[in-house]
Write a structure and sequence with these properties.
There is one protein chain. With 281 residues, the chain is of the alpha+beta class. The chain has two domains: 85 residues, 434 Repressor (Amino-terminal Domain); 177 residues, Beta-Lactamase (2-Layer Sandwich). It is built from twelve helices and five strands. A five-stranded antiparallel sheet has the order 2-1-5-4-3. A hairpin with a 3-residue loop joins strand 3 and strand 4. Helix 7 packs across helix 12 and helix 9 packs across helix 10.
């Protein structure tokens, strides 16, 4: 771990970012060049003290998880991310479809959707980052570990995962999750994480095993969804998807038709999300 160079790199990347680059207001009294330390810490979901100690050359060696969070917070490119890992004495993560690193381009789009439910997911249905509005709508989907990171995996092993959708919509969702996993498993091969996830589900879920045996590949998720929210009730949303083919990531954006009850509910959830973020800070 090269503490001096790590601190220098973090400081220079922070100073190169402007508030507008990450969806923040500049404010009238800003004197700091680029972002403040507390802003980078918030963008990286870590404490200000932890991040500040890294810039002051007195922090502990960051874990891979912390480095990945800082990479997203500072909107680093893949080359910059790899450099950050090496300065911290860690091996750079593998590139390609299995990488959790969200590209700066997708991050810039996400920054401009702060009041809209939006999240970036990989091809296994693992949520990599969410807006506050998305957390208010679906809960924090980034907290899970192992196979449970995948929304499709949780769908079959955790009854609570289905609480967000009406009962009459769940059969179609089950088919969609199964067909999606089969497609990814075939694409990635026998020794892949997708194949291991399917094997695990075959042992754990009779429903999944039955659907898997049908070998259906044409079931797709509908772009229009009904979400059951515990505070505001049913919300009808449209899901738009932007693909990052190089990384194998999808940016999902959830909107509702203006003037409808669902639109008003999404507006309310946006406020709820901001209030929760404020209370955490």
């Amino acid at each position: 771990m090269d503490r001096e160079q790590l601190a220098d790199f973090l400081r220079r990347r922070r100073e190169a970012l402007q508030p507008e680059d990450v969806g923040l207001g500049r404010g009238a009294r800003r004197r700091t060049a680029g972002l403040r330390r507390e802003e980078v810490a918030a963008l990286s979901d870590m404490s200000v003290d932890y991040y500040s100690r890294l810039e002051q050359q007195r922090g502990p060696q960051p874990s891979e998880q912390m480095l990945s969070a800082i990479s997203r917070g500072l909107r680093l490119s893949l080359e910059e991310r790899d450099h950050l890992f090496r300065l911290a004495g860690q091996n750079a993560p593998a590139r390609g479809p299995r990488s959790d690193h969200v590209s700066p381009g997708l991050m810039r789009i996400l920054d401009r959707l702060a009041d809209t439910p939006a999240q970036v997911m990989n091809d296994l249905g693992e949520t990599l980052i969410q807006t506050a509005a998305a957390r208010a709508l679906f809960g924090d989907e980034t907290r899970h570990e192992g196979f449970r990171r995948s929304v499709g995996y949780r769908w079959f092993v955790d009854p609570d995962a289905r609480a967000a959708y009406p009962v009459e919509d769940q059969a179609a969702l089950s088919r969609g999750f199964t067909a999606g996993l089969r497609s990814i498993a075939a694409q990635h091969g026998r020794g892949s994480r997708a194949a291991a996830m399917a094997e695990d589900l075959l042992e754990r879920s009779p429903e999944f095993a039955e659907l898997w045996a049908a070998h259906e590949i044409n079931a797709v998720h509908a772009r229009e969804k009904r979400v059951m929210h515990p505070e505001v009730g049913v919300i009808e949303v449209q899901c738009q998807v932007l693909l990052d083919e190089e990384q194998g990531h999808s940016l999902l954006v959830f909107t509702a038709t203006p003037g409808t009850e669902s639109y008003e509910k999404l507006q309310l959830l946006s406020v709820i999300g901001e209030q929760r973020m404020g209370s955490v800070g």
